Amino acid sequence: MSTAIVTSDTSINHETGLGHPEKPDRVTTVIKNLKKNKNLIWKKNKKFDSKILDFTHTPEYVEQVENSFPKKGLVFLDADTIISPGSKDATYDAVGSIISAIDGVENKEFKNAFCAVRPPGHHSEKEKSMGFCIYNNVAVGANYLIKKYSYKKIAIIDFDVHHGNGTQNIFYNNEKVLYISTHQYPYYPGSGSDKEKGIHNNIFNIPLPAGTTSQEYLNAYESVLKKIKDFRPEFILFSAGFDAHKDDPLAQLQLTSEDFYEITKRTLEYAKINCNSKVVSILEGGYDLNALAESTNEHVNALLEFN
Fold first, then answer.
1. In the predicted model, is pLDDT for residue 114 greater than 90?
2. Which of 117, 146, 183, 275 sits between 20 and 30 A of 107, alpha carbons compared?
3. Which of 14, 123, 162, 299 is catalytic?
4. Average pLDDT rounded to a whole number, residues 283-294
5. What is the pLDDT of residues 195-233, one digit of tens each?
6. 253-280 pLDDT per residue, tens
């Protein structure tokens, strides 16, 4: 088996307007770079029953989003989250990518997967879009694992530089899901203190100050690995944001591209022991195109090594 890259043809149709950092080039740059690797399996998203969204978001919110996509022009869902006519298919297909990836791992088509799609998802709460995010892709994936495959212990590791307030919001009361986030703090969106622990002690935030270096980050990441070891997940999902890179314009952590290989490798060593290396990753942030291409390549190289 190998590593799959799951993409959608519609990611590039999600137009956000001139100068917006969450732009179609993010995905095309990543895919173009990964195409150089001949050891990868390429898959497309699959269509899914939209009722799956109701396990993660409220039906009222799903209906609100459905009715928000414009016939022309741009619409603001909030100050940062912009949608266009092409956003509808892109949004549903981003969710479909993580479902396709999970099914592929479960059916032993491939060992693990990275979903190179947009829009991102981890800021989207049960009934609110924000921070470029419409549906919470990784949260839908976790609930899909619970509903379809009857998993009881899922870990979501979010190394995006911004705290995934949406994922925390969705799983705050859910003992089946451990949500771990490393992020710059205090910073957008304002949540993510180490005092936010969840009802079942299932939220684990590691707030880091602006200027955190590679070594300081990797030292802090040992706490993530200890939490994973103690929790013993049956499946691991990555909210894979690459905006903690030192070149990213939207934050001030100081990671290098190679650090994302190290983060992934260390996690997969535990995944091999605890959950037979069942891992699916999905793109979140990352807004410097060169840094994003390099960092996703390092992340995928680590996924490939554990086949």
1. yes
2. 117
3. 123
4. 98
5. 999 999 999 999 999 999 999 999 999 999 999 999 999
6. 999 999 999 999 999 999 999 899 999 9
Catalytic-residue membership of 123 = yes
Domains belonging to the chain, first-starting first, are: 3-305 (3.40.800.20)
Amino acid letter, 304: L
- Residue 1: predicted pLDDT: 78
CA-closest candidate to residue 126, choices 166, 160, 72: 166
- Provide the β-strand partners of residue 181: 158, 205
